[in-house]
């Protein structure tokens, strides 16, 4: 099986889906043009036209692009027949597979690439992950296709819970085939899990960027340098994100001939400074592993602590070879430093003095060779990633990060590697507990006992290695004390306002400040006052007690008034500058209508799911729902932490009342849009934010709405009915501010 570059033995399979049975709203202009761009680049390198296999479902306006191009349809039957019957009979060295069209994330986080037959009530598609498994399996004869390159330019956003539950399982071609370890795989995906693949100007942003990266390679007779192209793509998207032109985060998977796996391109050649650092680190390693006992201890710890996917050093590898393995592996240099610590002599004396003197040179030598902020070993990094994949640990950790560090920026909150990389880089001052360990401890305080114990065990091992065990235990004790005192880990402060229904040209009101078990009666208006007068009292209360951007402001209202735009009230904070309340503070509404006793447990049960949930766990109520049908809709989804309301405005009061008395603690709606338009506005704004952070997320969206009149953040409303923080006892007397 040759992995050379004989273009006569290169095959290209391209699937482009533009027209869908779902109708005009589903149609996508660009995949055909993108597929032809990749085909033209490959044929320009010498790949013969007879080796091109194009399956397309073009828009009528793009059908002319296929004139003179041999192609078949991209319907489900044709795709299955090609991959199951035609492809296994092809003979070649390189196989390129390209797919462009709509994609969604369905049950089990599977990525479904939708067939042209897909419609809203029948999301039939192909499992993208299983397609890659199939291409890497022995379904293709072992002597064929030593290298397989797969490119998928499609979205990967999860469906709303109700649609996800109803979606059919995507097709997969793999049955009993086994992974063919001799085949090198290179897989490009246009976006991370939960992400959107941008399409502009009749072409996919990812494919356009990829082709630019491929075409930038110097002319030559050899195969394309995919690692170099991957670095160009990464750099291009870094620039797009920095300038706000795209949020898209492409990713890739790569497996080399030895079966080593990685999710990043091969590193670029070392710079002169890095080569000098490598030489110094190699000398330090040689000195510390000069005797057989030290060498064995070092090799054992290095192999144990490296990522499971890292290349395994050969027996009796030299110090230089071990350093090469470390440099070429994610978190490898940190792992090497940890392994050098294992060579420390047990007894005091000249050997220990020599060790201390020598190892002191290792850290500065390693600095140019590892990313800024990296301090986890490969095993520690992989271990935490595995924990983040269990239960609700990831969204709980993301919420804990925002509680611990308000304003922290996470590039992709629903992508475990991205979250972990962002938090690892938050390096504290010397001799302080790393922020990541502070956050994992806060997370453990919110998790079920088994998940919490596993996470704390991971933290214990990390803290022991870096000499921070006492700091970690002190942090754990502080959180335990806080939980016992307040009943909530990381419980924040809040201002609570009870408003009566409208009467006499205004409303009566009461204002409290709360933090944990502390309650301060701030103000009371026994006689109806207009909104401007109430907001003045609230403004003064916030000035005295609150923290901008952090203190939660809760308005308690009857169901008929939950649509009141309290977040648009103005405050001044004793200045001449007017500002919107909902821009400076996370503002939510809560219901005051009595909740029947049989539904109190439902209310608490749903709220328990908020701490570890994400916005996509909310149930989308039907657009045409009326009040009398709400209980039935809620009963079908008893585990949903809350609902999204898109019903017409005339039905909302009834829906709000039915939800509040039925024990729904979280409701989200768009005040200015209804039905499908509301869904179209809400879905991209809400994204995959942890539910625990939703009030703060809406504050940020409202702030964006103040800057841009066309931004819909200003129209978002949130019911946030926390059973653990009811209204305090009514004030008996007016309380002066």
TrEMBL record:
Residues 508-723 form the vWA-MoxR associated protein C-terminal domain. Gene3D superfamilies: 3.40.50.1460. InterPro entries: Pept_C14_caspase, VMAP-M0, VMAP_C. Residues 384-477 form the vWA-MoxR associated protein middle region domain. GO terms for biological process: proteolysis. Pfam families: Peptidase_C14, VMAP-C, VMAP-M0. Residues 479-496 have a biased composition (Basic and acidic residues). GO terms for molecular function: cysteine-type endopeptidase activity. This is Caspase domain-containing protein. It comes from Streptantibioticus cattleyicolor (strain ATCC 35852 / DSM 46488 / JCM 4925 / NBRC 14057 / NRRL 8057) (Streptomyces cattleya).
């Amino acid at each position: 099986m040759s992995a050379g570059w004989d273009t006569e033995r290169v095959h290209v399979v391209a699937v482009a889906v533009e027209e869908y049975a779902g109708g005009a709203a589903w149609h996508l202009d660009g995949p055909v043009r993108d597929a032809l761009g990749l085909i033209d680049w490959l044929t320009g390198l010498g790949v013969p036209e007879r080796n091109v296999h194009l399956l397309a479902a073009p828009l009528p306006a793009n059908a002319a692009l296929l004139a003179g191009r041999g192609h078949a349809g991209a319907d489900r039957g044709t795709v299955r027949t090609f991959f199951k019957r035609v492809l296994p009979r092809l003979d070649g060295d390189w196989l390129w597979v390209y797919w462009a069209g709509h994609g969604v994330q369905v049950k089990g986080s599977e990525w479904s690439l939708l067939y042209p037959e897909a419609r809203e009530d029948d999301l039939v598609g192909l499992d993208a992950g299983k397609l890659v498994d199939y291409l890497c399996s022995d379904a293709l004869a072992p002597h064929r296709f030593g290298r397989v390159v797969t490119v998928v330019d499609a979205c990967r956003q999860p469906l709303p819970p109700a649609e996800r539950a109803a979606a059919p399982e995507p097709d997969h071609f793999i049955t009993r085939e086994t992974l063919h370890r001799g085949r090198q795989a290179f897989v490009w995906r246009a976006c991370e899990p939960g992400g959107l693949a941008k399409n502009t100007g009749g072409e996919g942003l990812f494919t356009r960027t990829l082709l630019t990266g491929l075409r930038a390679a110097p002319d030559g007779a050899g195969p394309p340098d995919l690692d170099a192209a991957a670095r160009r793509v990464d750099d291009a998207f870094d620039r797009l994100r920095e300038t706000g032109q795209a949020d898209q985060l492409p990713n890739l998977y790569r497996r080399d001939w030895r079966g080593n796996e990685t999710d990043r391109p091969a590193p670029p050649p070392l710079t002169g400074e890095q080569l000098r650092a490598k030489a110094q680190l190699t000398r330090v390693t040689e000195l510390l592993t000069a005797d057989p006992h030290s060498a064995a201890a070092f090799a054992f710890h290095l192999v144990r602590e490296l990522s499971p996917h890292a290349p395994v050093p050969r027996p009796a590898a030299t110090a230089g070879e071990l350093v090469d393995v470390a440099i070429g592996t994610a978190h490898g240099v940190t792992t090497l430093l940890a392994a050098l610590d294992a060579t420390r002599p047990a007894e005091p004396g000249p050997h220990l003095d020599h060790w201390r003197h020598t190892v002191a040179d290792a850290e500065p030598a390693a600095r140019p060779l590892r990313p800024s902020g990296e301090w986890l070993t490969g095993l520690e990094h992989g271990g935490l990633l595995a924990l983040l994949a269990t239960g609700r640990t990831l969204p709980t950790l993301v919420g804990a990060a925002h509680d611990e560090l308000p304003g922290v920026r996470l590039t992709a909150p629903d992508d475990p590697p991205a979250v972990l990389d962002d938090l690892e880089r938050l390096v504290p001052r010397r001799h302080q507990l790393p922020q990541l360990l502070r956050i994992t401890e806060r997370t453990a305080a919110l998790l079920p006992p088994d998940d919490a114990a596993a996470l704390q065990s991971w933290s214990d091992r990390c803290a022991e290695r870096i000499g921070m065990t006492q700091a970690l235990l002190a942090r754990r004790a502080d959180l335990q004390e806080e939980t016992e005192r307040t009943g909530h880990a990381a419980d924040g402060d809040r201002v609570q306002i009870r408003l009566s229904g409208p009467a006499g040209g205004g409303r009566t009101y009461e204002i409290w400040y709360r933090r944990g078990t502390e309650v301060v009666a701030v103000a009371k208006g026994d006689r109806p006052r207009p909104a401007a007068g109430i907001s003045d009292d609230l403004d003064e209360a916030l000035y005295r007690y609150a923290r901008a951007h952090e203190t939660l402001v809760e308005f308690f209202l009857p169901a008929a008034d939950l649509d009141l735009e309290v977040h648009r009230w103005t405050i001044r904070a004793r200045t001449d500058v007017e500002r919107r309340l909902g821009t400076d503070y996370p503002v939510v509404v809560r219901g005051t209508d009595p909740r029947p006793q049989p539904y109190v447990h439902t209310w608490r049960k749903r709220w328990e799911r908020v701490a570890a949930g994400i916005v996509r766990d909310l149930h989308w109520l039907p657009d045409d729902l009326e009040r009398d049908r709400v209980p039935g809709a809620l009963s079908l989804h008893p585990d949903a932490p809350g609902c999204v309301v898109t019903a017409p405005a005339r039905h909302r009061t009834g829906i709000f009342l039915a939800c509040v008395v039925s024990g729904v603690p979280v409701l989200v709606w768009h005040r200015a849009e209804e039905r499908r338009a509301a869904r179209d506005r809400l879905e991209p704004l809400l994204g995959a934010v942890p539910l625990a952070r939703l009030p703060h997320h809406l504050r940020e969206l409202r702030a964006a709405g103040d800057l841009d009149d066309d931004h819909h953040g200003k129209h978002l409303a949130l019911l946030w009915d926390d059973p653990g923080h009811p209204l305090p006892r009514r004030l008996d007397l007016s309380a002066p501010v």
